[in-house]
Fold this protein.
Amino acid sequence: MELIFEKNRKGSPNPYFPKEDPAGSRKAGDVLPKGMLRTEPDDPNKRLALPEMSELEVVRHVLGLCRRQVGIDSTFYPLGSCTMKYNPKINEAVSRWPQFAAMHPLQPDSTAQGTLQVLLELEQGLCHVTGMDAVTLNPMAGAHGEWTGILIIKAYHDSRGDKKRRKILVPTAAHGTNPASAAMCGYEVVAIPGTEDGLVDLKGLEAALGDDVAALMLTNPNTLGLFETDILKIQKMVHDAGGQLYYDGANLNAILGVARPGDMGFDVVHMNLHKTFSTPHGGGGPGAGPVGVKKHLAEFLPVPFVKKTGDRYEMSSDRPKTIGRVGAFYGNSNVYVRAYAYFRTYGRDGLPEVGKHAVLNAAYVLAKLQKTYTRPLKNPCMHEFILQPTKEMLAKGVRTLHLAKRLIDYGYHPPTIYFPLVVNEAMMIEPTETESKATLDQFVVAMEKIAKEALETPELVINAPHSAVVGKVDETKAAKDLDLRFCACE
Amino acid sequence: MLFITFYELRFTQPFDTPFHPESPLMSYIPHTEQERKEMLAVVGAKSLDDLFAHLPKETKCGPLPVPPGLGEMELSAAMLKLAAKNRSAADLACFLGGGAYDHFIPPAVMELISRGELYTAYTPYQPEISQGVLQLIYEYQTMIASLTGCDVANAGLYEGGTALVEAVQMAMRHTGRHARVILDGALHPNYLATVKTGIGALGVEPTIVAPKGYQSDLAALAAKAQEAGEELACVAAGYPNFFGSIEDLGKLAENVHKTGALLVAVGTPFPFGFIKPPGHMGVDIVCGEGQALGVPLQYGGPYVGYIASSKELVRRMPGRLVGKTLDVQGRTCYTLTLQAREQHIRREKATSNICTNTALCAMMAHFYMSCLGIGGLKRAGELAVSKADILRRKLKSLSQTSGGAIKSVPDYPVFHEFVVETRKPAAEVLDALLAKGILGGLDLGRFDAARKNQLLVCVTEKRSLEEIDAYVAAVSGA
Amino acid sequence: MSSVPAGLKYTKEHEWVKMEGELAVVGITDHAQHALGDIVFVELPKAGASVTYMKPFGTVESVKAASDLFSPLTGKVVEVNPALAKTPETVNKDPYSGGWMIKIQPANKAEFAQLLDDKTYGALVNK
């Protein structure tokens, strides 16, 4: 589709602002210092390139692009590790009320009692859900939560004068954000091997633990979709060595309301509310990555925080041992309005149903598909599972990438592919609890048809997708002949 | 002790909103009883709890001490009650800025952002079915790059404070210098605090150069840079700075470049359609808070951090980038590119740990800039400047005559935000303004007790002359 | 089977070295280029930079992977392959000749003995 800049009609009028200058005003050019007005240089890349067109033309451009895009609202979206559940519309509606959406982050607490109450009650709720003692809402996404959590662990060790702990342990199968976050906090990252069953190798862990280890970062269920059944042993080993245990909450949906990281012995957790608490993924964000900690770490949490005195809520920064600020304001507040609405919708009796049905849906699809695809790991399935192409498919030249692209022709968003890196040809499927049996049955039928095609007409699968608005994309060209913006000179 | 109260608070006073103990289960889980039975049979489990039989029992929890669920009807009522406890910028006249701005946003922006194809998608890893988001982000990158006067921009970061942390780390990686960073003391205090947290973790203590009055001390920044010499990764200066001041950074850029370091400019991009953008002044990295471009105030988030730079720095850039390419049939299309910089591939050696960013807010900024166009953005800027000037002049003449609460209005070049000095604590002046339905600005004493008689006032294009007059009336009587 | 020319020396990180008079020419092996896939970017030091035995001296990037380049020898970089900036794919097409990366003036010839010969390296990658 044409770029919006290619539809430009220079000088197109718009209906937003009055043409008349305010009475008694001076021209902006006279107010601003000489030489500070924008002038357009010869270099076309440095010129102002905003589209000029009517609002209707903008709307049509965007709706045209919407036809080239799928979301959860369009189709089943089993993207493993991302928890693509339904985003209830009432949460969107509420968050857009001006009483929430038009709140300035620096307005007096007396005018923000509703928002502050929402934030504090959500903090309390998240404490209960994770089994932690205190929660901060400052971090704005999962990776930001990891960074915050690791800084808290660092502050804890430092406060005890324990400065020799320079390493963070991370399983080889961990999300890439884990090692990246640890490195951004100045830590050396040490990879911990997994067993053939896809769990943490206790011998490997034992060997890596020592008085130079600050923490072990773990996802549970892990990135292979398996519950670390040795978690109580693991937590004892880490704590006995003086380390802290960090919980990557990417897979919290699997155990929501059923089991709690706090009860497993984790000291710090981050949650991805855009996964577990249904706040929309937004085409890649915003997310929200609150961090929960046990009592001994609470004094290090970032500022600000909400506190309540009598019946008044206030925003405070009075936390002397804090790691400091991790952003300009108080996290993605309006994402929290949505998460709060979700939390109140499910409540005490509903939250466990989320975890249970997320696992039921995954186990059901797995039970049906393990007859047609290879399942590399045999442990009980949680909320997601990994499949691989069979030997016969691979012999025909059909790889995971091809299967994923062929699913597009059947109208589905493909699963996560080639993650985790430790499993060859991985295809990670996470249905989530909001999909009906009928949807899952249809998906299974499509996967079975594709399996058949892979053996009988492999070319059809290898050259997929056939129905998408574009075919296979030349990513090598994109990286080599870098073109990151439109230039008016073209 | 604060620490104790914090805990007491949580355990003794959970949930003000009343419980409805008899509420039925409300949810978006679609299973019927019959379907659940059939599915359990396929799985080979007797009950849902069976699915968790392999978990150690110590890890399992009983019912959580949280309120029972609510149906949409009750939820709506409960949320409305909470909403009623807020007084937003929709019913107060907002002269409050300080890093978040109350601009007019065409309703078309919210309408477009409500498309399920956009807001219920995730990161566009599968380009064949994500051309919508990918093209919109490519267009957004173009708009931000051109607005800031830079070669390239990324797909967005969380918000302004963390964008500055990323910019500083980008400069460290590019220069290979990890020892010294110099920050303009006239940056937003919360940004300064965020950078301290961010690079403090790496053992770097930034040097902060105090402002000269309300203006960034460009000469002192240059002198400090020269002193730091080859140890220096970057200097970061505000434009506009926290006090609203705008000054040409060209000379500073030259001085910083002499040391081989980079100059980072930090500021709201809204004025850049109207005033000289940092990219035209030799600045290497421009970053800050993009909220002013069509993202609602939302009590501080979600916003969109923006970052733009010269093309030489692109491989050091954090976060997502969308590039143009061709498909197998030679058709133009878009895809995520330079992913080898990112955490999912390069892990601990990545340019940043950022994964989920704020694509939806970047798309809001796109829709805002597209609706307004060059003409609209310039007109909005022009109106903001004119209206800010009107209030500033009125307050100045007030301070020179009767005075009221205003002691003086310092002179320095600004865009739409400026400081006034008050006779009594700014907090008290704000209370008087609030009593008249006006959010009168930001009490700078919140950040620095020595500034308790300073008030930061912002006037966007949205403020009417009536509101401006009401402001003046309120402070002359206060 | 990856090609492992005789007469060159190798590292277990998949760099090759060839002596040309006093200078050591360094690149990555056929096995490495194949494992990386389409190479889109090679980041190299400037002439004059110092490099250290088995320490990173640059990076090589494909669409889906990035890898550090390890210096087989300690010394000074005297020349950098200028062609790779525009045509990094040369490393894929011609890893042992046109795809060379840097030329080093070695500081310690004893290091040379610690490198792998073609038989040992070949056994490593073609097992």
Remarks:
- Strands of chain C lie at 9-10, 15-20, 23-28, 39-43, 50-51, 56-62, 66-70, 75-80, 102-106.
